[in-house]
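User: Predict the structure for this protein chain, please.
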Amino acid sequence: MVKQVKLIIKPDNKEGFFSKGTVLHKALCSLGIIINSSCGGSGKCGKCRIQIISGASPYGEIDKKFINKQMLEKGYRLACQTKIMKNMSVIIPLKIRKFITQATYEKHGQVKIESFVRKRFIKLPSTAISQNQAYFDVVKRALGVELHPGLNLLRESRNIPSKATLVTYGDELIDIEEGDTTFNCFGIAIDIGTSTISALLIDLGTGKTLSREFFINPQVAFGDDVISRIDNALKRDGLCEIQKSVVSAISRIIQRLIKTSNVDRKNIYEIVFVGNTCMHHLFLGIPPNSLAVSPYIPLVRQPLYINSDDIGIESLPHTRCYIFPNIAGFVGGDTVGAILTSGMLRSKKITLLIDIGTNGEIVLGSKEGACSVSCAAGPAFEGIHISCGMPAYSGAIEGVDIKAGNIRLNVLGNGNPEGLCGSGLIDTLAQLLKLGIIDKKGKLKTVDKTISTKDGIAFLLTKNVYITQKDIRQLQLAKGAIRAGIELLKKYMNLNNENINRVVITGAFGNYLRRDSIIEIGLVPKSLSGRINFIVNASLEGARLALLSKRKRNEAENISNKVEYLELMKREDFKEEFVNAMNFN
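Assistant: Here is the predicted structure, written as structure tokens:
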């Protein structure tokens, strides 16, 4: 038997028991404490520095690379390099923790309710039951339809009520409830994002959203980007650890939804999931090997119907799960959900949909046809690998205005500015371009507010927050990838800017960008400025629509089959288009 050791977290006073030798970083993750670690625990970024009060193990070479000797002797270590070998007490500084402060959701439209779940109250004549007839034969005659009870339900049917509510999922009978319980029928919509998991608990009878929750995706402990997570999943036991981490987080989210809305968990009958193809595979425990090498194809593309306990979501005995279909290796169910929400494939007018994140997905088309691309924009837009970059948590600068030499900042949480998140980075870039401090090639000029750093010249926003020439190049690469994707899609579909009637922007932080800044840096062609619309969390809204409407669910599946995928890296003109798109024209 593996010895259990105790871990105490300060200042939270949280504690947990773990097998001797458990990596501290992963132990913290299992307790719901997510810390910065852009390298996925490989010891390359040095961001997961914590202090061990008691129970410290000897430090290693990687610890010495990022922490000076004096601090090491005080118990400072990298969480990703520290194993819990005995009872341990640690301090986790707030500044290295990841918190959600910017997650929002907005219902985009109404839908006729026609859920896949149905509850029907019946009264069976006592004479029919007493005439030595099978219970479900009597039910069949009373309803006029044939239902298929599962083995688990038959095993649970100790008492056979004559007045009962039958719960069906398609043509499957999933529960029999005594009395009339038709008014208690609920479902959950969940978007498993690369950084954030978002969820809604919905009344399937009225369509009303009863509660909503947002949670850091604990997979960030295995890397900020999907490539790092795939690499971790391919290691021994890696896939199992990653899958368990996200399922555990989803179970906690469900518990919060239930507590907030005061709903009985036994009356939650369906969960609809969306996520990019990598999140889809890792959540289900599907080996992502095929996503790691060219041609980057998913193992499965079609929608999936799965029992919740098969995934590992506990204490939901009658809950079924619907997993959105994928389009391609890096265009997944989240994009299908966004397309569904936008309604672009129901219109004759041409829409350009841009989902901005680490992997930018772009879709161009109408009801006549559509094509999608995936752009490896990298994590720069989310503040990763940027000198003073940080996710959109408390202390992040999310808006910048520079007028007459005065710098005005909007800071999340209204506290002291600690770094720049994605929207703040794009605002800064746009303001410096407008003032001529950055030229069209991306070169930062020397002015009163510039200083020298180890990464070259930098522009100061505050005493401790700045943007360097190296950062600007990283942002150019991200912007160039998305803009090149737009231009190549237009070229492939033989369309120009005049043909595009609407631009829809969504994504991890796309909802918080300013139209002027997007245009100034050239992320979107200037001629499309007046056609830009923003949809808050379009992927989650797509999951909500599919939860409430079988028609919308069918539409989502048609989207998956109808949208073509264009592999940019195979095009001979990609490199040229990408280089051109990096300029700020």
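The mean pLDDT is 88.
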